[in-house]
Amino acid sequence: MRILLTHIQELLQVRETPIDKVSGAAMAVLPTLKNAYLVIEDDLIADFGLMTDLKEITYDQKINCDGRVVLPTWCDSHTHIVYAGSREQEFVDRINGLSYEEIANRGGGILNSAKNLNATSEEEIYNQSKKRLEEVISQGTGAVEIKSGYGLSVEGELKMLRVIKRLKENYSLPIKATFLGAHAFPTAFKENHQGYIDLIINEMLPKIAAENLADYIDAFLETGYFSVDETKQIMEAGTKYGLRPKIHVNQFTAINGIKACVDFDALSVDHLEIVTDEDIEVLKNSNTIAVALPSCSFFISIPYTPARKMIDAGLPLALATDFNPGTTPSGNMNLVVATACIKMKMTPEEAINAATINGAYAMGVSDTHGSITIGKKANLIITKPISSYYQIPYAFGSNLIEDVIINGVITSKQS
Ligand code: NIG
Ligand code: FE
Asked: N or C end of the chain: which has fewer CB within 10 A?
């Protein structure tokens, strides 16, 4: 099957030589081609170039992209899409003055979702989760990472990871599974942290490895959740099973967690709403990428990750949604890109780099996704007619997506 896209007003993120990520000042550069064509051969990008250089070729389908922008689909490297129910009561409680911490301390928050998840069947969780996945695909996401972490019991964590496995089998976009048993201490282990950590290491991890249910390991390294030393135990155990760490850290407090993550060669450190100069120094010359989650900052009114400071220091930065029922009930990457520009002062070029190639790096798929490169997967967004790609962050409330192509197949036709 060959699809020819013609008269593309602007083709974004064109990388003839493959790159795995972009850092610092290079993030401000978004290579593009104006008045371009692109050829899809089965599931791959087979060719692209200027219309003036288009040779006569045969095709099965032609799409005239006049006035439209074409770009790689978003790579959302941090989500909790698999969960049961919702937490809108806590949302209203926060409006009425309670903080996220206060709600968590009275049994709400992660423990509330864990109660719900353990009481819901695997089939029902799958059905709820697939709706969310289909929604984010229609919003332009073409690669996604999904975490466990609302089970907090052997059966609950396995149930979540089996749902993720089923999503992997039934949907053609890449899905990476992250084991987040260390998301919070269940009430029964409130005074016995080591008991829960032992359960994760001795009961959960061997079963997860035996069923090959996870690609990465995560922990919520935060005051009141997992300490640096507790997280080190989790990272060490995960690494033994070949699960590279991707860690929630520095969301509310900076407690030298980033250094520990870099020491374990974490693929990513995520959140970083609070960042010290030492944290930035540690990240320099590491292979660990920082992932900012601006929709979370927006929704629970916490500081935004200091993107300017980090990019100006030469670091790479990725953007992701954090789609979850507590702090970010949205998987819309377009909104993430807009918020990064509006609130974090990232330029449109930086934000698009952060949400495509750098997002791909943060979930280990940058050799196949995240840029327009011959041989990469044909996962593409075709916008509606727009005046320029600046519209993507500028018209933050509009749906500018006309078509989403995953593995060379047009998945959505939106009005
Ligand atoms: O990434 N920070 C930890 N975990 C989630 C929120 C979990 C929840 O409230 O359900 C996050 O924001
Ligand atoms: Fe998260």
From this structure: C
Q: Give, using CA atoms, the residue closest to atom 1 of ligand 1.
A: 322
Cα–ligand 1 centroid distance for 109 (angstroms): 8
Say how far residue 209 (Cα) sits from the centre of its chain. 23
Whether residue 160 is found in the same domain as residue 251: yes
Q: Are residues 119 and 169 in the same domain?
A: yes
Ligand nearest 110 Cα, by number? 1
Closest CA to 9 of 66, 54, 73, 48: 66
Per the listing, tokens 């002062």 go with 345
Q: Which of 83, 94, 110 to mutate to test the pocket of ligand 1 (most atoms within 8 A of CB)?
A: 110
282 DSSP assignment: H
Q: What stretches of 119-227 show up as alpha helix (H) in DSSP?
A: 122-138, 154-170, 193-199, 205-210
Which residues form the domain of 302? 75-361
| Same domain? 31 vs 116 | no
Mark whether 165 and 256 lie in a shared domain: yes
* E strand or H helix at 44: strand 44-50
Protein residue whose Cα sits closest to atom 9 of ligand 1: 326
Our count of domains for the chain comes to 2
Q: State the pLDDT at residue 285.
A: 86
Atom number in ligand 1 closest to CA 326:
9
Q: What is the CATH number of the domain that holds 52?
A: 2.30.40.10
Residue 412: predicted pLDDT = 65
Residue 366 lies in a domain: no
> Does any domain span residue 255?
yes
| pLDDT, tens digit (0-9, with 9 covering 90-100), for 257-275 | 999 999 999 999 999 999 9
Residue ranges in the chain whose pLDDT is less than 70: 412-415
